[in-house]
Design goal:
alpha/beta; Helix Hairpins; Chitinase A, domain 3; five-stranded mixed beta sheet; two-stranded parallel ribbon; 3 helices; 7 strands
Length: 160
């Protein structure tokens, strides 16, 4: 697996998810599967089939997290980042048409279930890296090029 990057808060969240799945959720589902299996005929046992499927999904996610976490590089804020867009920045942009967007540039594994987070690997993030306030940013999209202007860059230095 290639090296992945994440914010410190993203790393903590992944560790917490792994602990929850392994130490809390998996044991509960395992008990339900054992109980349902003890009822006998499994061919029409909905509890057994549903929870067995859920157990496979949990195991798949646990394996993924166990492989991912040791290879993650945590990228912390550095004062040298101030004034420019780098990993972990909250960025506000405005289009030529007056549309506003605000998002945080983070690692791929941090974007799921998080409004306003984009992957550092996305075309928008790649176009924004190293830009400053008032810089023009041209982003290649499937529908053509779009032009944006950086209006604000901020870094939150606590566990965000």
């Amino acid at each position: 697996m290639s090296l992945k990057i994440t914010t410190r808060a993203g790393f903590v969240k992944l560790q917490e998810e792994l602990n929850y799945l392994w130490l809390d959720k998996r044991p509960k589902i395992t008990k339900i599967v054992s109980w349902a299996a003890s009822l006998g005929d499994r061919s029409e046992n909905a509890d057994y089939h549903y929870n067995k499927k859920l157990l496979r999904e949990i195991d798949r996610r646990v394996r993924y997290l166990q492989k991912l976490i040791p290879d993650i590089k945590i990228v912390d804020y550095s004062p040298e980042q101030e004034g420019k867009v780098y990993f972990g920045a909250w960025v506000e942009i405005e289009s030529e048409g007056g549309d506003f967007k605000r998002f945080r540039i983070v690692g791929y594994d941090e974007i799921f279930g998080m409004d306003g987070y984009i992957s550092v690997e996305s075309p928008m993030a790649k176009a924004l890296l190293k830009k400053e306030v008032d810089d023009e940013v041209i982003v290649d999209t499937p529908s053509g090029k779009s032009v944006w202007f950086v209006t604000k860059i901020e870094y939150l230095h606590s566990a965000e």
